[in-house]
Design a protein that fits this description.
Helix content is 47%, strand content 13%. It is of the alpha/beta class. The protein has a 6-stranded mixed β-sheet, sandwiched between helices. Helix 1 (16-32) packs across helix 7 and helix 12 (261-279) packs across helix 15 (311-318). The termini are far apart. 38% of the residues are buried.
């Protein structure tokens, strides 16, 4: 194969980074790929051709949909703030469904998964989208199994990614499938990406996991949890801190935060553990103790259940390295207990 044809469907109001992020990955491959490799030929098609204005004002020159005839290696569908209008564009949805049948694989970024689902392409499949719209997608397309956690999901020849920048992670995964892990890592480094993120990584960052409720007693309880993660934190004690009965606390907490208090504590422990694994050289045992896991075995089970990786695997893939080549160092007390 001398080239891989990538056809990007663009429309007025699409989000520019949903488009430019993945295609910059493909274009960089073309510049670094050995001559014997199969380069990517990138094309843009649109019902709004020839000049398509994205939501940020960036204008993309595109050909009419008819120019996208013939075999396609990768069909790429972005999301955007004008998604509602795009979903009502019957010509666009019909063409996406027809083009998908001619494509080796089909990929979407952010809300682009709605367009794939509207065309019936994700029925019976597992998919994701931006975390803020997963519930809406699941309600609108009950035949699709919507998973709000991963940054991208690969189901058969369909790949759906979460919010905006995850399209870059997805594109790197496509490059790895086409050309191997070494080139994908080289591309990530060349584009100065700090991490080459695995698709199973949660799209909920530690910051998102720690968002505080509006209700003052619940917010105070969350703050206390964050400050005392190293302790056992039984729900009864947290309820007492909030000056509420256990039953009322559990009910109000779930209403305000969207998850039961016990589950919130575990997710917050995992979020803190991820941060420590990424930014320190604490041992796994030290991380477990800092995050309140009574035993390393409990930590391994909870971490694996949440992320599909062991703590060591996660650290190997996602540890942040500073420009000097050093990770953030823990305090001296932690070093002495290693």
């Amino acid at each position: 194969m001398l080239e891989r044809r990538v056809v990007v469907v663009v429309y007025s109001g699409a989000q520019a980074l949903d488009i430019t992020g993945p295609i910059e990955v493909f274009d960089t491959v073309n510049r670094l790929l050995p001559k014997s490799g199969a380069a990517y030929r990138i094309e843009f098609v649109s019902t709004d051709a020839p000049l398509v204005r994205t939501s940020s004002g960036v204008v993309i020159e595109a050909a009419p949909l008819d120019a996208g005839q013939g075999p396609i290696d990768t069909l790429l569908v972005p999301g955007g703030w004008s998604l509602k209008d795009a979903l009502g564009n019957g010509e666009l949805i019909s063409w996406i469904g027809e083009a998908a049948a001619r494509s080796r694989r089909v990929a979407s970024v952010c809300g682009g998964s709605f367009l794939l689902a509207e065309a019936g392409l994700l029925d019976g499949r597992r998919a994701t989208t931006h975390w803020a719209y997963c519930e809406q997608m699941a309600h609108r397309y009950p035949k699709v199994t919507v998973d709000p956690e991963p940054i991208f999901i690969w189901d058969g020849r369909f790949v759906t990614s979460a919010g905006v920048s995850t399209g870059i992670d997805m594109a790197l995964a496509l490059v790895e499938a086409d050309h191997g892990a070494a080139l994908a890592l080289q591309i990530a480094r060349y584009l100065v990406l700090f991490l080459k993120r695995h698709g199973g990584q949660s799209q909920f960052s530690a910051v998102l996991d720690a968002q505080l409720a509006d209700h003052a007693p619940i917010r105070a309880a969350q703050e206390w949890i964050l400050d005392n993660l190293q302790d056992p934190l039984p729900v009864a004690e947290i309820a007492q801190r909030a000056n509420m009965s256990l039953r009322n606390f559990a009910r109000v907490f779930r209403r305000e935060v969207g998850t039961p208090p016990g589950q919130y504590v575990e997710r917050t422990r995992i979020a803190r553990a991820r941060e420590l694994l990424e930014t320190t050289d604490l041992t796994v045992g030290q991380v477990a103790r800092r995050c309140g896991f009574a035993a390393p075995e409990t930590f391994f089970r909870s971490f694996g259940r949440a992320l599909g990786l062991t703590p060591n695997e996660y650290r190997h893939r996602f540890q942040v390295v500073s420009p000097s080549g050093l990770i953030v160092q823990p305090d001296q007390a932690d070093r002495s207990s290693a």
